[in-house]
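R.M. (postdoc): so does anyone remember the format we settled on? I'll just put the structure tokens first.
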């Protein structure tokens, strides 16, 4: 019994030592700062701008970026930076909703499929195969078209399209952990399947899924912005990032109306992707 119990301890000590030796690269630190700023924009936007995102001065319409208006103004004289900042809450919240749906539902499916095996694995595997066979963006468009053109519906559609990705990864991780020595040792010590699942399988599968969730957060921002660009989100005067880009394309003489929100989307997504890559490499 003692030798079986000791199989786990050395592994945990090695992992703990590895975690303590992890250093954060400068690019990851910069990416983290970007994400913190974006989150603060979504929580306390009034701290970053004194302009009202819905009210503008027509005398200053289509003004180029300057010290007074960092991102310029739109056709109604509204400050674009204020609209980007205040639109962050909708974009970030929608992405979080999408990731939560994909993470929870997909993880449950993958966990049940990989741990129970047999008929459950076959049935759930076919469901996941069907979801994977449909392009995720096309699936999101079909779902949001059925639910209605609102940002929250776009978030739900994006989350549903991500279920298969989480399910496939969770199943693979569960199958890997399920055949490990420490799981077999827990059975020999008298542990049941629930104890093995909660005490050994889950703690050794969540890291990869968390890294995927971070990556999917950036992907969800991009997908939701794309849906808003196509008109599947909240209508004006909402200031979702994708809607700002769509509104700006009508004014060829004011390219900052496109470049400013698009640049924010690109920087945010790249920052999330950098953090996700680093998390995968440190596992």
């Amino acid at each position: 019994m003692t030798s079986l119990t000791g199989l786990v301890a050395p592994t945990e000590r090695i992992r703990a030592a590895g975690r303590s030796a992890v250093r954060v690269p400068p690019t990851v630190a910069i990416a983290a700062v970007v994400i913190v700023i974006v989150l603060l924009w979504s929580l306390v936007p009034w701290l970053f701008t004194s302009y009202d995102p819905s009210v503008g001065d027509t005398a200053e319409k289509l003004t180029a970026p300057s010290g007074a208006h960092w991102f310029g103004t739109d056709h109604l004289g509204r400050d674009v930076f204020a609209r980007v900042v205040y639109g962050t809450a909708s974009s970030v919240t929608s992405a979080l909703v999408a990731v939560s749906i994909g993470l929870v539902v997909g993880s449950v499916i993958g966990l049940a499929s990989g741990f129970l095996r047999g008929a459950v694995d076959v049935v759930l595997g076919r469901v996941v195969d069907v979801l994977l066979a449909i392009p995720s963006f096309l699936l999101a468009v079909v779902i949001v078209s059925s639910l209605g053109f609102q940002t929250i519906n776009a978030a739900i559609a994006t989350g549903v399209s991500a279920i298969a990705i989480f399910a496939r990864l969770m199943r693979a991780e569960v199958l890997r952990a399920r055949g490990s020595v420490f799981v077999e040792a827990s059975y020999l010590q008298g542990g049941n399947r629930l104890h093995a699942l909660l005490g050994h399988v889950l703690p050794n599968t969540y890291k990869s899924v968390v890294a995927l969730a971070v990556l999917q957060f950036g992907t969800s921002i991009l997908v939701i912005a794309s849906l808003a660009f196509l008109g599947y989100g909240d209508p004006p005067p909402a200031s979702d990032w994708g809607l700002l880009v769509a509104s700006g394309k009508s004014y060829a003489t004011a390219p900052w109306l496109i470049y400013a929100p698009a640049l924010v989307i690109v920087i945010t997504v790249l920052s999330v992707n950098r953090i996700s890559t680093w998390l995968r490499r440190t596992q």
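R.M.: ...and that's the designed sequence above, right after the tokens. Also worth knowing: The two ends are 29 Å apart (CA to CA). The CA atoms of residues 49 and 125 lie 49 Å apart.
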